[in-house]
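Need residues for this backbone.
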């Protein structure tokens, strides 16, 4: 938990996959395992570890977090297929790792009550995607909203 101390983290916002409505269906058994075992066990462990360093854990419903653009709030008709979130809004065109996009939305909902207020400015502790540039405008932007 050195990270939480270093960055003076007070609360961890955790997406609650039990409320997931992104049209992802892994079958009844897998859904059950994820909703009742994996997430529950993960959150229990996280809460236990967080308590030891005085950090609270808040469970946040994450419906549509993976298909909502964390930059412009446009909701895509389907969840991203690959590892990248690509915003279809021509005014935005955000290109960001799908997990970073979803995490920004969950953090935003925890702090502001709705998505797209928190912008990803930097990704750490994650192996970066090897981007393959197809055209000059292929690599999107990551910006902070004022
Ligand atoms: Zn967008």
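Answer:
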């Amino acid at each position: 938990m050195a990270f939480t101390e270093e960055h003076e983290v007070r609360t961890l916002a955790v997406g609650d996959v039990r409320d997931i409505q992104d049209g992802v269906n892994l079958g009844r058994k897998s859904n059950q395992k994820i909703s009742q075992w994996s997430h529950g066990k993960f959150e229990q462990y996280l809460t236990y570890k967080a308590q030891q360093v005085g950090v609270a854990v808040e469970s946040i419903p994450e419906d549509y977090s993976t298909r909502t653009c964390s930059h412009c709030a446009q909701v895509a008709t389907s969840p991203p297929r690959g590892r990248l979130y690509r915003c279809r809004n021509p005014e935005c065109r955000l290109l960001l790792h799908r997990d970073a996009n979803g995490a920004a939305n969950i953090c935003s909902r925890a702090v502001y009550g709705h998505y797209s207020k928190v912008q990803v400015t930097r990704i750490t502790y994650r192996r970066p995607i090897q981007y393959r540039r197809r055209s000059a405008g292929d690599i999107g932007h990551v910006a902070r909203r004022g």
